[in-house]
Design a protein that fits this description.
By secondary structure, the chain is α+β, with helices and mostly antiparallel strands. The chain contains four helices and seven strands.
Length: 141
């Protein structure tokens, strides 16, 4: 049995075993004696009976906030990796399309023009080691 409180960030595993059925991240909106309301990262509301609380797992803080190098993820599994990429892509401070996995650079297509390929960025990443600055294609080049 997992004990959760309002505001906890959790993984919800529906128990489905299809190829694309993964645990989803969400936040506990309500936790009463009989039911738990989860609002997923995509905005869907899911009610979980207290008897089924084993479908919930508290999310590691690094997975809840997102990281620039996925080696730092506390929940290093497929759902955790995809959620981290989603968090970075939707970041309010700017679309973070690049993320490291060690020395490997993962890129997400932003489907928009970004101003991150100018001479200023080339100079900023020149003679720098991976990890000194946020992930970018120029850090690898």
């Amino acid at each position: 049995m997992v004990i959760v409180s309002k505001g906890d960030v959790v993984w919800y595993d529906s128990g489905l075993t299809g190829e694309f059925d993964l645990a989803v991240g969400g936040t506990v909106q309500q936790a009463d004696a009989g039911q738990i309301l989860i609002k997923t990262d995509d905005g869907e509301e899911i009610w979980v009976a207290a008897a089924d609380s084993s479908k919930l797992k508290i999310m590691h803080p690094s997975s809840a906030e997102g990281v620039d190098d996925m080696i730092k993820l506390g929940d290093l599994h497929e759902a955790g990796i995809l959620r981290n990429l989603q968090i970075r892509y939707k970041d309010k401070k700017g679309c973070k399309i690049y993320t490291y996995t060690g020395s490997i650079l993962v890129a997400v297509n932003p489907y928009q023009t970004l101003d991150t390929y100018d001479a200023q960025h080339v100079e900023m990443y020149k003679n720098r080691k991976i990890g000194e600055l946020p992930p970018h294609i120029f850090a690898i080049a």
